[in-house]
Amino acid sequence: MAPRPPAPLFPAFPRLLHGGDYNPEQWLHQPEVIVADFRLMREAKCNAMSVGIFSWAMLEPEEGRFDFAWLDGIMSRLANQNMKAVLATPSGAKPAWLSLKYPEIRRMNDQGLRDPHRGRHNHCRTSPVYREKTAIINRMLAERYKDHPALLLWHVSNEYSGDPCHCPLCFEAFRQWLKQRYHGNLEELNQAWWSTFWSHRFSQWEEITAIDPSMHGMVLDWKRFITDQAVDFFRNEIEPLREFTPNVPVTINMMGTYMGLNYWKFAPYIDIASWDSYPAWHSEPDEFRVAADTAFNHDLNRSFKGQPFLLMESTPSQVNWQPICKPKRPGMHILSSLQAVAHGADSVQYFQWRKSRGSSEKFHGAVVDHDGSAENRVFQEVARLGSMLEKLAPVAGSDTPAEIAVVFDWENAWAIDGHQGFQNREKHYGDEVRAHYRELWRRNLAADVVDADADFSRYKLVIAPMLHMVRTGADRRLADYVRQGGILLLSFLSGMVNENDLCWLGGFPGGELAAVAGLRVTETDAFYPDQRQTVHAVNGNILGLRGEYDVQHYADLIQLKGAEAVMAYGQEFYANTPAVTVHAFGKGACYYLGARVKEPFLTDFYTGLVKRHSLRSAVQGQIPAGVSAQLRRAGNRTFLFLMNFTTEARAVTLPVGQTCRDLLEDRDISGTVKLPAYGVRVLAGAAG
């Protein structure tokens, strides 16, 4: 990829955002608290606050009676302090009067019962009434603040959920969605759902009134419909925002790999990706796995738009909803925040600014605790980070060069979740993908996280473990990618069904993937916890692997059709048959991991793969264990983030003769870079 000029997300405000969710409506009866808040925001070097997220009942206390005076005051305070507003639309939590007067907006469960008014995100997204009411309040917000100097970004709703509504309105919408998908042809739908099984065949559209979990194609389409309906609701929400503020970008705050919605479907309609990050730091003997898995989510959000994203929510201390809500140890807040920046974030924002005095999140971490003090450890660390982010302003808008793609596909995950066979408890699609990603992170290899519809041509290596669903055309695109010189990694359970969850005929993997992989899977073995299978290296294999490893959960029985074995099985009736293979195809190659093999297999496998295919890490030379090196790039300038995820000091030696600028300490540096426990250094230098 050729370097591109830096492109800040907010050209008129080219800096890293620092702030968080601010709920002044909870404190209107204590105006001195709001005065203190803005003083503390200055001390913490905050420059952008998210407001109005759950404010509908305060903005419209009765139907048709609006009160914006309190929000006017907050917006003016932000502008007067040269701060910006990430202004939310309030559809995430509706007021009680709306539920009482219009019962149809309350979600219905699969037993036909309406949910009571409680919690949040409990509305029906199909309801014309709810869509009308959200459009009204959004229009008033957009028209009122369209020229306000504080307005920076629209924060649309909050953490859209995928919880389904089973009301008559939703099922009528589902039937209309199906008619469009299947071209109004009920016979096409019956074939796609294989409805002759168990005599589930439909003779008229009106018979589709419930979701039958035995029909995998139906369940898959229902999940697709839920996402499409959420996207449609989102587009309804932003229509007045686009009308009155066409130059103000919109975002939704996503939730990592949340399975309720396919976030890739939102990507074309949002201007900036953002997400809410709450890792369970200090939950394991070391931080490696948590750090790598968090990096995976950062890279996923960067990949949605192929540009910097926003860390919309994080906690400066602890949450209140994990099984064990552990405070971050000294240094971890700065480290974890700058990890997000290292992977492409142009913001560090929090939930929440000030702890609520009551209700369900009163003990959720915040910048300002119940004591209201700036003297406690958490506030001081936030303020220190604020100063660091000001020094890192040149990083804003820079991109992340990656020559590797890891495929994480929501529809594939749904298909595996509904899949019945082999292993019905130990599927772990997300865990498998992250296990491969962790090996890249361990080696400081930058990666995009993409879905199966991505353009693969820009990547040197594409990693697609457990690609169970291969949608029509995806097999051909992957074949073309390898044929032109790409390196592809597939694994067990790959290429088994198409987009309708119908099995590929002619053997697995299906379609053109059989030729790409150079093999056929004849059977798949599955193991009880106390059963043992192993794989061992084949002499002279091209990756230089040695030794024996234990298998768990899955083992494909492989018949070679041009591929060569890298590893072979050690036990059972298929002992000494291929378990891991490689196949030269066109100008490229395809690796196939036929079994889920326990650690340290993937570590050794990627050691050989990286060496053979000359994959490049963010920094040359040896990086100490537990230290992550990530690169961002702006034109011909690079920013190297060195992050120590251990509780011991580490040192990184720069290449001989190389001098960089330490942005946080504002000095030139060469030779050895010292990192204290949980320490971070950011070095600016020339590309290459």
Task: Describe the 3D structure.
The chain has 688 residues and is an alpha/beta fold. It has 3 domains: 310 residues, TIM Barrel; 209 residues, 3-Layer(aba) Sandwich (Rossmann fold); 60 residues, Golgi alpha-mannosidase II (Immunoglobulin-like, Sandwich). It has 16 helices and 27 strands. The model has no long low-confidence stretch (mean pLDDT 95).
Shape annotation: globular
Helix count, DSSP H or I runs of 4 or more residues: 16
Helix proportion range: 25-40%
Instruction: Let me know the average pLDDT.
Output: 95
Question: What's the CATH class of the largest domain, please?
Answer: Alpha Beta
Assigned CATH architecture of the largest domain: Alpha-Beta Barrel
| Beta-strand residue percentage | 15-25%
CATH H-level superfamily of the largest domain: Glycosidases
What is the CATH topology assignment of the largest domain? Answer: TIM Barrel
Provide a short characterization of the protein structure:
The protein has 688 residues and is of the alpha/beta class.
Relevant terms:
688 residues, alpha/beta, TIM Barrel, Rossmann fold, Immunoglobulin-like, 3 domains, six-stranded parallel beta sheet, 16 helices, 27 strands, globular
